[in-house]
């Protein structure tokens, strides 16, 4: 689950950049900017201290000083702008600047908390016209239009003219570009695996199709199977099965109904690099360490939250007022999502998936992730997971303090920050939030899991982890109802969870698998989760962890009484997902009630497939292998939007996930998310302003947009990538 962003309120609808003047206002349109053409001097525009605005050839120009850090350190703007919630505005201007420099053009609040309602960051050069429309989601008489030009080490010159903010313009209709109507897995099909495409068509009868090589030569042909209207997209679709073609090849396409698909490969090693990339994403999410360019070219940045100004730092973080009387050193760990917060319950399920990949998929032990610890005789995947484990351990209340042994739920900023903002530039004070039973059990489960895995590499760490796990489990049993509140301040997500019986079950399972002790097996057998069907439409996530326990009980050797029953439950869960998949025209093992897609649906689908992978490991039956591979297709382009939800994989892929430092959409000097990063995916609830402006009334799969402002459909998170990494780790080891 990503975080609810409360200060960045972008509602972009369209972008137009052309030479020439702004579009003329209609009679019912109202101009909000005074003297935007600078015909009467420069008033009422202002500049930051240290800059002087002047006119050159009728255009307003400023000499921007060098040596500033943030965009807002140097700015030109106008205040007292009226905005009305729900009103659509056209924001336009002409501008030039020294080549390669960026202007952050915003409409926002001119007083604290300086909320941003709309922003774009074009790269400047010769004189050019810029124009966008957006819908305001707040009403104010204290708005502003501003051009933020700071952040450059060198001085440069910025000029602007014809500044306009016109209200009352008609909203523009958003039509996603879905490309060719033949939808395929744009990355790879395995030679001996299933190969299916989906055709969007008005035809209700079978149509001929061709599989073509990279030169256009026909390699196979057949006829499609009509499937009717797909409820998840509202499209009439056919399926195309070309599984009989098993030769390795690249640049293949499927042609049908006058359309040609995007290219794809048939390759037994098609997912090998993704296995590494999906795990390498964690290195650039690290807090408390410099990210080195030689280890991740293009992603270098200083260490974040290490007590170097403007950071307040994580070395001695106090609690929220009234929560505790101590500070904790909670440096390190992974930034949870697109912000600078760190959350135990989300870190817990993420660590579990990485450690489970190591434990269940032997090839992960040999991966070279080129991280700072590489070459230390410990598998890189364990070194990366330990970076987060050390943080989780640091969140435990020390002995001698109130609530000793329990674990703080989270640590994050006192208030939300805007985008973009590199971690080392975050100026907000940091706070520990109260302890919770769920966070305590997350530590108990993952620390117990770590104790059995790290023992052969670092006995002292394994012993420390097991001691922390035992302490946490005991503390949680003494305080079984400390639930995180639904609202817990601002600056981070709540991650509240009203049910913790699953977390008790998970922690008991991991402690039993590590120690074999009867006290833990007794708790497993007594848990209501042990006999319950926990494989619902969402197999597991940070808030539902019983399935994680059952998967480990089924796959890690142990002597639990009635173990065959646990294995049977996992297999039956997989059967449920395969039954859903067989009915789905896009082959998706996910069919939410009333077609209401979940937040983070991409990871829901991936984790459902993790259950299918576990069933394949338990039974060895090809049906589970084939279902697993078919399920991958959706993530990599065989979907209604014809987009791969993994950055860097597929001809058209998500690349603008919501993030404060992978923010190329807002600041071209910053990178896109690294290759192998999973986007959240369609979310029917469209909670953010961008999605609400563009996707109102969307159907299932269409409730997604690749925009950095859409934190509800397009964030990245450590737990979503954990689902991808775990799944691809298994796929990469399949012999087909």
UniProtKB/TrEMBL annotation:
<keyword id="KW-0624">Polysaccharide degradation</keyword>
<dbReference type="InterPro" id="IPR018221">
    <property type="entry name" value="Glyco_hydro_9_His_AS"/>
</dbReference>
<keyword id="KW-0732">Signal</keyword>
<feature type="active site">
    <location>
        <position position="706"/>
    </location>
</feature>
<keyword id="KW-0136">Cellulose degradation</keyword>
<dbReference type="InterPro" id="IPR013783">
    <property type="entry name" value="Ig-like_fold"/>
</dbReference>
<comment type="similarity">
    <text>Belongs to the glycosyl hydrolase 9 (cellulase E) family.</text>
</comment>
<feature type="domain" description="CBM-cenC">
    <location>
        <begin position="31"/>
        <end position="153"/>
    </location>
</feature>
<dbReference type="InterPro" id="IPR014756">
    <property type="entry name" value="Ig_E-set"/>
</dbReference>
<protein>
    <recommendedName>
        <fullName>Endoglucanase</fullName>
        <ecNumber>3.2.1.4</ecNumber>
    </recommendedName>
</protein>
<dbReference type="Pfam" id="PF02018">
    <property type="entry name" value="CBM_4_9"/>
</dbReference>
<feature type="active site">
    <location>
        <position position="715"/>
    </location>
</feature>
<feature type="active site">
    <location>
        <position position="658"/>
    </location>
</feature>
<keyword id="KW-0378">Hydrolase</keyword>
<dbReference type="InterPro" id="IPR033126">
    <property type="entry name" value="Glyco_hydro_9_Asp/Glu_AS"/>
</dbReference>
<feature type="signal peptide">
    <location>
        <begin position="1"/>
        <end position="27"/>
    </location>
</feature>
<dbReference type="Pfam" id="PF00759">
    <property type="entry name" value="Glyco_hydro_9"/>
</dbReference>
<keyword id="KW-0326">Glycosidase</keyword>
<dbReference type="InterPro" id="IPR008979">
    <property type="entry name" value="Galactose-bd-like_sf"/>
</dbReference>
<dbReference type="InterPro" id="IPR004197">
    <property type="entry name" value="Cellulase_Ig-like"/>
</dbReference>
<keyword id="KW-0119">Carbohydrate metabolism</keyword>
<dbReference type="InterPro" id="IPR003305">
    <property type="entry name" value="CenC_carb-bd"/>
</dbReference>
<dbReference type="InterPro" id="IPR012341">
    <property type="entry name" value="6hp_glycosidase-like_sf"/>
</dbReference>
<feature type="domain" description="Cellulase Ig-like">
    <location>
        <begin position="177"/>
        <end position="260"/>
    </location>
</feature>
<dbReference type="InterPro" id="IPR008928">
    <property type="entry name" value="6-hairpin_glycosidase_sf"/>
</dbReference>
<feature type="domain" description="Glycoside hydrolase family 9">
    <location>
        <begin position="271"/>
        <end position="726"/>
    </location>
</feature>
<dbReference type="GO" id="GO:0016787">
    <property type="term" value="F:hydrolase activity"/>
</dbReference>
<dbReference type="InterPro" id="IPR001701">
    <property type="entry name" value="Glyco_hydro_9"/>
</dbReference>
<dbReference type="Pfam" id="PF02927">
    <property type="entry name" value="CelD_N"/>
</dbReference>
